[in-house]
Amino acid sequence: MAAETAVSLHQHTERVKAARPNHRGALRQTGTTLATTFKMAPTATAPNVVVPEAPKSGFKAALPKVHSESIIKPTKTVYGDWRDDFFRDGFVVLPNVLSAEKADYYRGKLLNWITGFNLGLDLEDESTWTAEHLPVSFKSMFLNYCAPHERFMWEARCEPGVMDPFAKLYGTDELLVSFDSFNIGLPRRKDLTFQPWPHCDQSPDRVGLACVQGILNLYNSGPQDGGLIVMKGSAPLFEEFFEQLPKEKRFSSPHVHSDFYLFNEEQVKWFEDRGCTQYKVEAKPGDLILWDSRTMHHAAFPMGNEIRTVIYTCFAPASQCSAEDLEKKQALFHRFEGTTHWPNCNMFGQGKAKKGGKRESTEVCPLERDEPIEKPIVTEQIKKLAGLVPY
């Protein structure tokens, strides 16, 4: 596996701030450019952003077991909207896709979910922000306990302001959604050893953009509040980077699928030498962050006063899912099980949380569930997004 790395973030930052607009296509260009030095780690309901209805799909279904080519082939012309920023920088922040009231609703659902385990977690008492008071998670992502299928998760996925930008990028509204989960990051936790893991989520065998990832942001994410860090401008260099690597070094191992690559110190510098910069994405409640799966990214540990609350959202054209993967996706839905962020492939279930959070354990966490606390109301829209019925 590529070496794990550690990063020190200097106080000197370059901050670009703009007003929070409400008109269509306007972006908040707010974030923190990070001056970074890598060294080896000692251990290892109506939206305010309106997007026009997308045309019907012209994509053909991907064949089983074969990596499809790019599902987004942008033209060389200027779009004149946020897509220009997305394709240039590899990410974009779309402001106000949810109202403040809707964002607060979803944030409340997340926080009620985590305190509902009755393990002594007190959101007003930082001394309780430790593993013994929390259900099992992976990097503060709660992947088990049927969490990806809670009713509020499906409500969020079906928000027009969340779905429509994906439809605009893909050129189709016939979409599948991933059974991804959410992140609740308690700041300044002293029981964690945190280190960055700069990576991309696309196989070098894929040519062009194959997946758009998303975060529905539900908190005030400032410079110290934890959250997404991207290597700005790295996505357009994806093919060039892997072409200069020997074939035997183009994949990170072990990993359950090939759509993942962990970068080491030297490789991070390769991108920086070509003008890319590490950038802490800042966002407000109700903003949607989208990024290209080819973009190098990781996360900042929350050190401010905000509890990080985000929902991961990822959509892909339904035509890009093979019959084999569709069958797996349907089975995972009926088991209320989570998957990777890929909506159309890599159908690996997250399974049950293990006792003590130890993946190698054969004992299931006694707090595990066989169904969500509030099961989703399975509408016709949800059936299509989950791949249960065709478009």
TrEMBL record:
It comes from the Eukaryota. Residues 1-24 are annotated as: Disordered. This is Phytanoyl-CoA dioxygenase.
